[in-house]
Amino acid sequence: MSTEDEDGGTPAVETVRVWDPVVRLFHWSLVVAFTVAYLSSEEDSALHVYAGYVVLALIVVRLIWGVVGSRHARFGDFVRPPGEVFAYLRGLASGRSRHYLGHNPAGGWMVIALLVSLFAVTLSGVMLDTAEGGALAAAGSGSVAVIATAHADDGEYGEYGERGEGDEGGEEFWEEVHEASANVTLFLVFLHIAGVIVSSLLHRENLIRAMVTGRKPRA
């Protein structure tokens, strides 16, 4: 169904609200936070650390909203079996893929992949920050410092001294996980952008604008 413009000319495509405010705010906040974290990654700055914590908080919000949110925000609406994903990709390659109001099957799996990779990035970042006595450690309760001091007084701070080889090995492990998962996330972001462009062209809809306005063409 379509409606006519006010001047009675070209018919306007009927749109329907798909993305609720929480989904849209999450999406663009995540774009900003991840960009800030990535661009500040070489500076070893507090900005990088806090941007990472923002990303982690956003992930938690999205996980909750994926269960209790509006229809198209819920994981049950867009997480499809692998068979449907491959069928959609085959249709996409042939230019005859089905149109979805919410996330298409491939897009749904991309959402999950990005959430997993971002969680790996932020978890490893938190572990690194904690090991280095960074922002999270500084913001912690005084009891943590008391316990650490007690262990130090008892000679139990580390098996190899004040900062044992085991601690250094663990820090190196989390650093490698952090870097690898960040690179995977960046690859997924580029893949996501490519998918958005292809799907927008194929279905003749502006998916970027839809994530701003919340509205998409009905068909």
TrEMBL record:
Pfam family for this entry, one: Ni_hydr_CYTB
Domain Cytochrome b561 bacterial/Ni-hydrogenase: 18-214
Membrane-topology descriptor: Multi-pass membrane protein
InterPro entries per the UniProt record, alphabetical: Cyt_b561_bac/Ni-Hgenase (IPR011577), Di-haem_cyt_TM (IPR016174), Hydrogenase_cytochrome (IPR051542)
Main location: membrane
GO MF, one example: electron transfer activity
Transmembrane segments: 47-65, 106-128, 180-202
Record keywords: Cell membrane, Membrane, Transmembrane, Transmembrane helix
Subcellular location: Cell membrane
Example of a GO cellular component annotation carried by this entry: plasma membrane
Example GO biological process: respiratory electron transport chain
SUPFAM superfamilies in the record: Transmembrane di-heme cytochromes
Protein name stated in the entry: Cytochrome b561 bacterial/Ni-hydrogenase domain-containing protein
Organism of provenance: wastewater metagenome
